[in-house]
Amino acid sequence: MSITWFIVVFVLYLIANFAISYFAGRGAKTTTEFTLGKVGPVVLAFSFFAARLSAGIYMGEPGILYTSGWPYAWVGILNAAFWTASILVVTRRMRAYAGSLGSLTVPEFLGQRYGSRFLRIWTCIGCSIFYILLMVAQYKGAVALFSTLFGLDKRFVIVALSIISVLVVSTGGFKSVAWTTFFQGIIMIAVGLIIFLVAFKEVGWSFADVNTQLAQVDPNLARPFAESGLYSLGGVIALPFYLFISLVSNPYCTIRLMALTDCSKKNFKKFSMTLISIGMICFLLYCSGLFGRVLFPNLADADSVIPTIAMTYLPNWLVAVVAVGLFAALTSTVNSMLQTVSSMISIDLYKSNINKNATDKQVMTVNRIATFVTILVVLFVAYFYMPDLLSMLSLIAGTGSGLVTFAPLLVGLYWDKTTKAGAIAGSLAGVGGFVFFYFCCNFNLWIKGVAAALLAVVVTMIVSHFTKPIDAQILARMKGVETAG
Reduced to 3 states, what is the DSSP secondary structure of residue 476? Predict the structure, then answer.
């Protein structure tokens, strides 16, 4: 591929990205505006999609389908369903309760809901650790992309990605990230359609022929379920619940629900229908991974299948557009998680525990410092560790971070009798159970995640039954009910 075309398209992309970031975030003068600037439902839906899937849908997910075949396609088939379920379960109640308490982050909401300083600090630190691993997964995608297309050294790639992310997140906080990920999401959809159509054309416009050729490579690739392992019938049954756990309470996703301007039926419908439509389009990218296995059966790195399709079958200028689109997918998640981590550190650690009288200017300064320090940590980890399949690391770390908040948030939204002790016990049991099942038990990963979530909920409810209830005034304030005194 001609490097000249890429430079031209990439420079145009950066100019547009930084312009959007600047104009979207220039009005953020307070901590609230910087951390949770209100954004419309369609923009938030695209931002939700781009932040959630990123390199996974454009490189990691096709990479797993390349190695596993049709059984993994159930992830793509179920995407729209678990997105919708998560939205229906959490959005309106979370938006209303967090608004009543004035919460700007998920840890702050949990701390206020339960009157617990420990829970607020623990969820901040626990989620941040998992998010660092998730960002490392995106760095793996960037390295796979640019090493495939240009043979660039990984050090150059991870440093460039770090600089761009710091600049975007530091400019205007949440609104900058939301609008730039909206822009990136538009590019990602266009690139996904291009790749699907080109790859489908090369395999003859026939799924039947694809299945025949997959069976010739390996009969297991053409079956709907694997005989055993992650993609067996039992694994596929557990999979939507596993995905639900990784999404429904995860702060970098939930923050987008908290940022809805309002939860009127009109806005809620726009948000939901946009996400469902995007989810259906995303399935096309999964298919491209299967097509790639037919076209290139012996790739050394499965995560490079989409760049390889682009480089082989597209003209140079369009390869440049695809490369920039894939880069946009990577940066969307890095930016979203980086913004979430820096907000939690500046609000839930600094303002809540170190300087309770901090001004908005001081909080935003700490936010920017936290952004820089966090990206340095990610850069350091990425330099020494790169996962074999980025999507698997994303799935594992995403579920780990989801379990930090799963029981306290989900049970607490629907059961007023959830206590501080119950929420803390449930969070620790969920994460601890997942770690134990992952390293010490030999059964399906998806079932491990679901078992850990069930353990977290059961522990939360049992401990809550035997411990001191939450102050009634906290619950009343959360629900917007006026109380005397």
Answer: helix
pTM of the entire structure?
0.77
Residue 80: per-residue pLDDT: 65
Structure token pair of residue 158? 């991870």
Q: What is the DSSP letter of 153?
A: -
The span from the CA of 125 to the CA of 276, in Å, is 32
The reported pLDDT for the residue numbered 406 is 92
Q: Contact 290/206 with Cβ under 8 angstroms?
A: no
Q: Return phi, psi of residue 481, to 5°.
A: -100, 130
The one-character DSSP state at 151 is: -
- Whole-angstrom distance, CA of residue 78 vs CA of residue 90: 18
Most confident of 10-14, 23-27, 189-193, 429-433: 429-433
E-strand stretches of 293-452 = none
pLDDT digits (tens, 9 = 90+) for 336-374: 788 888 888 888 888 888 888 888 888 888 888 988 898
CB atoms under 10 Å from CB of 282, counted, come to: 24
Instruction: Report whether pLDDT(33) > 70.
Output: no
The CA distances from residue 262 to 40, 271, 275, 431, in Å, are 9, 11, 17, 32
Amino acid identity, position 202:
E
pLDDT beyond 70 at 103: yes
Residue 28's contacts (CB-CB under 8 Å, 6 or more residues apart) are: 34, 37, 172, 173, 174, 175, 176, 364
Q: State the pLDDT at residue 455.
A: 96
**DSSP-derived secondary structure letter, 469:** P
Contacts of 350 (CB under 8 A, 6+ apart): 358, 363, 366
Give the torsion through C-alpha atoms of 170, 173, 174, 178, to 10 deg: -50
Beta bridge partners of 39: 260
CA distance 223 to 290: 12
What is the percent of the chain where pLDDT is above 90? 14
CA dihedral (382, 386, 387, 391) in degrees, to 10, reads 60
Q: Give the integer Cα–Cα distance in Å for 321 and 327.
A: 10
